[in-house]
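Reviewers asked in the last cycle whether our approach scales beyond single polypeptides. To address this, we selected a multi-component target totalling 503 residues and predicted its structure end to end. The input consisted of the following lines:
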Amino acid sequence: MHWSEVLQTLLDTVGDILPIIVMIAAFQFVVIRRPMPNLRRVVIGFIYVLIGLTLFLLGLEQALFPLGRLMATQLTDPAFIYSGIERIAGVIHWADYYWVYIFAFAIGFSTTIAEPALMAVAIKANQVSGGAIHAWGLRIAVALGVAIGITLGAYRIVTGLPIHYFIIIGYVVVVIQTFYAPRMIIPLAYDSGGVTTSTVTVPVVAALGLGLAETVPGRNVLIDGFGLIAFASLFPMMSVMAYAQISEYRAYRQRSKLSE
Amino acid sequence: MSLKTLARPLINSLRDLLPVIAVVVFFQLVVLQQPLPNLVQLLSGVALVVLGLTLFIQGLEMGLFPVGESLAHALARKGSLFWLLIFAFSLGFGTTVAEPALIAVAEEASEIAAEAGAIANSQSVQEAYADNLRLTVAFAVGIAILVGVIRIVNGWPMHWMIMGGYVLVVFITAFAPREIIGIAYDSGGVTTSTITVPLVTALGVGLASSIRGRSPMIDGFGLIAFASITPIIFVMIFGMVVH
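The resulting structure, written as structure tokens, was:
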């Protein structure tokens, strides 16, 4: 690891945080005109965030991203998929890509569990709900949603079906679920769609999408390479609402058992 | 501080990371049947990630959450809807416009547009296209936080607004140029970074808990959801205007 790399990552993170700090400071001084409570602690907190995120990104770039990206390319390589299978020229079968789907599922799940933004929301949801929402339960529900989303997204790239059919059907399911899910979970479920895809998930998943679009015959990188992220943001909404519905059902059954 | 309280967060971070390490190692050794390249680098990288994550979570509780909440409380106490909305918009716009992931997507999109023949294939035109796209997304996120804050203040139910957003997305998709659709849908997901999410969440929850009659759970969450829909709509409109 070179120092220039460390510096670059640090500068990127600073560039990410700086506009926020400037804005908060401006509002604090100009509009609110009162010192911020616990200023010292807050400043230390921001320094922690800055250093923490920098180390996090550096470590990922050093250990996981190169391997993850390489894996995505190797798994989508026709030489891997068709080793041992007699291949009819030009014809592909979606089921031949089973390792890709398994990888998509596993990497979608595991990177989401490691996603810091999701941890933040889970911690907050746990605090706000007074412990009714378990941070781990929420994270696992979201991770399952991302896993299913990325797997379906990979299937879509292999088959070349248009993206908006999936998205529109997904929206319809979300709308139907909204009417049956417990009311307090709905905003959180909607939020979890946007939260999932950031620092850890996007680089690996994007490599998977581009790798697939490049190697599957008849796919266009420009048109089919995108869209995995959109899938990863859609399915957590469903899985989080389903999680709440299942928890509610179990609580209901427990109650009715007790009253018997 | 005892050793135990110091080690606890580190162990938690390691546990968060374990699944992704297991997946990568399994696929490398079992499926692709290749050795792990450079074990030392791998292990030191994992150590960095664990340490970084631990610091980040600590900083979250000390810095990002309290700032978001104290600003929300202060603005609510001030009672000026005008400043609250200005703050909401600038928070959305300001955190998005410099977002590295968005810059990358915008550059890629400009290449796609040039290859599709929608814009002239020259450096300056492409750069202008990427910049405009970036501003469009940042504007969309600003509007999203603004609308989301208005919702919290008034206690409007979330789902009708989101469904309205979906209907708009579906409707506009029918008219948008095909090359922009994938990018538009993806731009909804990339806009909210690891720093923005905790801050915006704390803002929403803080606001909902300082306005009487609002529940932090039902009214406080939801800002991120708006920020994931409006960019889809705005980017498709951008595509229709430019292409």
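Chain A touches chain B through 102 residues (CB under 8 Å). We regard this as preliminary and will revisit it once experimental data from Aim 1 are available.
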